[in-house]
Prior knowledge:
This protein folds into two domains: 31-112, Helix Hairpins (Orthogonal Bundle), CATH 1.10.287; 120-279, Immunoglobulin-like. It is 40% helix and 21% strand. It has five helices and ten strands, in the order ααααββββββββββα. The protein has helices spanning 2-13, 17-22, 36-67, 83-112, 249-279, and strands at 120-127, 130-135, 169-171, 174-177, 181-188, 193-197, 202-206, 212-218, 223-228, 241-247. The strands form three sheets. A five-stranded mixed beta sheet has the order 3-2-1-5-8. It has a three-stranded mixed beta sheet with strand order 4-10-9. A two-stranded antiparallel ribbon has the order 6-7. A hairpin with a 4-residue loop joins strand 6 (193-197) and strand 7. Helix 3 (36-67) packs antiparallel against helix 4. The termini are far apart.
Amino acid sequence: MKFFLRLFPVFALGLSPGVAAEHNLYWAPPNVTVGGEKIDAILNFIFWLTLGVFFITQAVYITYLVKYRRKPGVKAHYSHGNNFLEIIWTTIPVLIFLGLAIYSNRVWDDLHRNPPADALQVNVSSYQFGWDFRYPGADGKLGNVEVKTITPENKFGVNRADPAAADDFTSTELVIPARRAVQIILNSRDVIHSFYVPGFRLYQDAVPGRTISWVWFEVKGPVNLQLACSQLCGAGHYNMKAPIRVLAQEDYEKWYSGKARAAAQARATENTDSRQAAAN
């Protein structure tokens, strides 16, 4: 595969192999999630299948082009075709496409639906043109989300009556632990966006008015990546990005403790100020 992946793009783009490899123009970035190899297997199968069909059809085309070329003294004749052959070359692609559709849907369900009960929940809120992230506080429970209550003051649509939401904290970057299942609670404040991380082999639209809570993944080890929106969502779409940091468990716990402590101190200061204002 490396030969073809290097050969065709380099000639098409006029780039040297070193330059093209540096910008990762040939294939998907390395998979970093548990189970992502199954998605790569589907991609590889489709690639080799397409490549094989290309060479077969071109070989048949060239063969017939040469064999039935115009010749002096030979008259052209009309062929009515062959129903048996037409049934064969129609049935085979149909069976292949059905098999791919059924198998790929099953792989997606196995990898990204029915998150484990102990998965870390992270609320991901998308907007024109950025991302916000909300984490559970010391109780380990993320407050419920109600998209109907999303306002400029309540950008996540948090249910204020849910006691689990009282100690939640927010972040402008997605920081998660390695080797632990992470469940995404995804919503949008305005238009359709998408949670797209090629290294996770994951793509999921964020739809206004809906909360999507069935997507999850598990990263195999520490890595730095980037979250990008792949839906054309407006003039600033090109810049709708957020950093992703996958940390070792001990490093994640340090980050989490610091963020939770800072959020608790901020709430305590806010409550004190509110009481003083009420007293005055």
